[in-house]
Amino acid sequence: MPANGKKRSLIVIQLIGANDPLNTVIPYSNGLYYDYRPNVNIPAKDVLPINDDFGFSPQLGPIKDLWDRGNVALVNGIGYTTPVRSHFRSMDIWHTCEPDKIATEGWLGRAIRDMDPQGDNVLTGINFGRGLPRALGCKGVPVASVGNLDTYGLFPDVEDEQQKHYALEAFARMYGMSNDNDPIMDSLRQTGRNALKGADILRTAPGKYSSSVEYAQNPISQNMKSIAQVMFADLGTRVFYTSHGSFDTHGGELVTHGKLWEDLGGAIADCYADLEEHDMQDDTMMLIWTEFGRRIRDNGSGTDHGAGGTAMLIGGSVKGGMYGEYPSLEEAQQLDGDLRANNDFRSTYSTILERWLGLDAPSIVNGQFEALDLIRS
Predict the structure, then answer these.
(1) What are the tens digits of pLDDT across the range 263-275?
(2) 251, 302 contact by CB (below 8 A)
């Protein structure tokens, strides 16, 4: 816990579909980039330079502003040693920290369990979006999944208040305590009770929220606004999760990729401004990741599945800069036409777990991995 007594929070943004690292952090001084990508490249004159060799895509202006303030860490060449090009398998590996076998527990689910071993707070972890990412899945760990915070709750489509009252009463009785000693039913009942309790608490968050920041009316911006609303309501939530995409840009990449980052950059900048307005920027970290990179060569209008991606960490306590070696574009250094991952993603996870959340990383990421020195003391 930091010296100011505040508990640190983590916001995780998953870029679904595999973001293209070469068109995000662009090696604009390297002629090979333009040789390999005659059609799907960002002209050097349009790049937002961060040094003499690399720069951001022009749609990442809000990220560049945070970079200039020293609040963005870029983790280069992130991935794992034996990459696969299946979205589902690669995401599964990132979610569970198990590259060699199928696992059942997510890394953030395990982290939440360590933060709240008794499960006293059903809102320690929240996903903003549909479904539950495997990263948050862990037996006995309650996690809320919120599609729309303004309408979140049980039976939101029942407009008649009396009917809703009867329905909620029936739900509560259905998931009440029982003496039948059936472990499966006990688990289902506990899930139901957690849902009921979480809905009651989350319903209070929007009413407690006050901010001068105006978020855009797109899904990622509204999810980031919901994250801010819950965080500022002080409900004990430590892990916030959301996703954005699809970044699976096999065709029409320049337009699609640009629009995705335009929306995301604006959402991150607005959320960061909100954090600053509420003096929480130093106690909140954002992790932005994607399941793998794209091929080095373009396919004429897009890029296909590759390896060696880029992750970002953003926050007031982040030591800004580039971490890890940017993978070489030289043909002899490529991995079957892909960027070669040289930075195990579990090192980044370990950094967050140990140096940010104060947890035991090896038991969560399934091994010992060197942490990165990217958090201010």
Answers:
(1) 999 999 999 999 9
(2) yes
> How many structural domains are present in the chain?
2
Q: Which of 371, 292, 285 is nearest to 20 (CA)?
A: 292
State the residue range of the domain holding 265: 9-150+217-244+260-334+342-365
Query: Is 53 found in the same domain as 127?
Result: yes
Asked if residue 239 has pLDDT above 70, the reply is yes
Burial profile 161-185: b = 16 or more Cβ within 10 angstroms, e = fewer: eeebeeebeebeeebeeeeeeeeee
DSSP characters over 252-267 = SHHHHHHHHHHHHHHH
Model confidence pLDDT, tens digit, residues 14-52: 999 999 999 999 999 999 999 999 999 999 999 999 999
Same domain, 196 and 58: no
Angle at 323 between CA 317 and CA 324, to 5 degrees: 155
Phi/psi at 64 (nearest 5 deg)?
-60, -40
Helix segments in the chain, DSSP class H: 31-36, 61-68, 87-96, 107-115, 161-174, 183-202, 205-208, 219-232, 253-277, 345-351, 362-365
Q: How far is CA 279 from CA 91, 126, 275, 282, 284, in A?
A: 34, 22, 6, 8, 10
pLDDT score at 273: 98
